[in-house]
Amino acid sequence: MTTFEQLGITKSILDGLKEIGFSEAFPIQVATIPVLLSGRDVVGQAHTGTGKTAAYSISMLQGITPRKKIQGIVIAPTRELAIQITEEIRKFAKYTGIKVATVYGGQGMVLQLDALRRGVEIVVATPGRIIDHLKRGSIRLDDVKYVVLDEADTMLDMGFIEDIEFILDLTPKDKVMSLFSATMPPEILRLAENYLNNPKQFLLDADDLSGEGIDQSYLVIKDREKMKYLLQFINENKRGQTIVFCSTKNRTRDVARELYRERYNAVAIEGDMSQHQREQSMGKFRTGKADILVATDVAARGIDVPEVALVVNYDVPNQELVYFHRIGRTARAGAKGRAITFVSYSSIGDWNLIKRQTKVQMTDLNEKMGIVVSIPDPLKREIRPRSFGYHNKTRFSDRQGGRRDRHSGGRRDKHDGGRDRHQRYSDKKSYYGLRSRW
Is 370 left (phi over 0), alpha (psi -120 to 50) or beta? Predict the structure, then answer.
């Protein structure tokens, strides 16, 4: 194994890594850190849990000086992921003097403005909120030397591609840029071609969609039986925490409520909760004050808890790729984990599509536990094939003539993320007027 010392990392960063128990580098870190340190752009196809956050963060910290000007930005699709990335960078940067701020919708702007005024070198942001700050003038990108796009395919799916291009147009031409994505749809490849300079690509075998290292199994049961078996599997899980993924907000609330009644130490996270409530739930789970997290897929990209030993898919996900993001919350950083999927009779067709994408043997718990499946005839039907992965979809608010920023909760003019922004700001001779997209 290669150590971080062998990669040429400076002592101040090594001290922070040592404090959190990092000594040997993971494959993606060994591959990408030397390239990024050399000043070359990187495109990486990698899932969370493989060590990519440390790869781009350590490289960025090495090239930044603590002088209270923004020199690095990391753009992430969700507030949960942005918060998690910030926490990780702060651990790595503890002895460097480099400060990090997070900006995302749902949090008061005053808090973020105060942090920015005190001076930071790295900003981790969701796309909508960083644009809000750019328009206020509270963030300027003149001195940026490092740009990271994390979970680029999710940002594409959430409709942020124009926002990303808008932000990148405001960054200096001379910079080191890295783009990480679980999949590489054509739009992401075009983005890389337009904004990255001769990037080196890393498509590591460890980052495929097999779910390697995870004991995957499934149980076909009636929907009303799911809670009984959930309690059974939770009780059997003695090694660490449990995450239960549900398909809807109502289902998430119902499952969490039932766990409360059964006196389990559980928390929930779903879209209708306030940002404070979501952060409170995630904080309890991350610190081990809660044993079980019940969540919708909005949280699938922002959970990095090493002690998660079991993931239960209470509902079969509606997209194949979501399944791999869900189960990837266990077996983090080379550890072992278990993932169980409850398949209701009406979801068998969807589940068969997911099974075809996996490259490891799954355990049929019906056979192992002697549970007979008796599917009503109307449900014995084939589901039409779907394309694999995420799709770039028109959001509801787009069809209403205006686009809602998912992170800030506010509305922006329908042209705010596109090429007609210039008309709105043409009368202002400002920093933005220097850029053609305005």
Answer: left
* Domains (range + CATH), the chain: 11-207 (3.40.50.300), 214-379 (3.40.50.300)
Q: Give per-residue pLDDT as tens, 50-78.
A: 788 999 999 999 999 998 899 999 999 98
Q: What is the mean pLDDT of residues 247-267?
A: 93
> Is pLDDT at 431 greater than 50 in this prediction?
no
Q: Across the chain, what does the average pLDDT equal?
A: 82
* The length of the chain, given as a count of residues: 438
pTM above 0.70, yes or no: no
Distance from C-alpha of 316 to C-alpha of 327, rounded to nearest angstrom:
12
Per-residue DSSP letter, 389:
S
The whole-number average pLDDT for the span 11-31 is 91
Alpha helices in 64-205 (DSSP H): 79-92, 109-118, 127-136, 152-157, 161-169, 186-195
C-alpha 247/C-alpha 316 separation (Å) is 8
Three-class HEC string of 259-292:
HHHCCCCEEEECCCCCHHHHHHHHHHHHCCCCCE
d(CA 101, CA 117): 11
Q: Which DSSP letter does residue 250 get? A: H
Distance CA(438)–CA(427), nearest Å, equals 11
* Amino acid identity for residue 113 in this structure: L
Q: Give tens-digit pLDDT for 266-311.
A: 999 887 887 788 888 888 998 889 999 999 876 555 566 767 889 9
Strands 411-412 and 403-404: antiparallel
Q: Buried (b) or exposed (e) across 190-213, using 16+ Cβ within 10 A? A: ebbeebbeebbebebebbebebeb
Going by pLDDT thresholds of 50, 70 and 90, the confidence category of residue 125 is: very high
Residue with tokens 């400002």: 430
Closest CA to 54 of 14, 1, 104, 95: 14
Per-residue model confidence (pLDDT) at position 374: 79
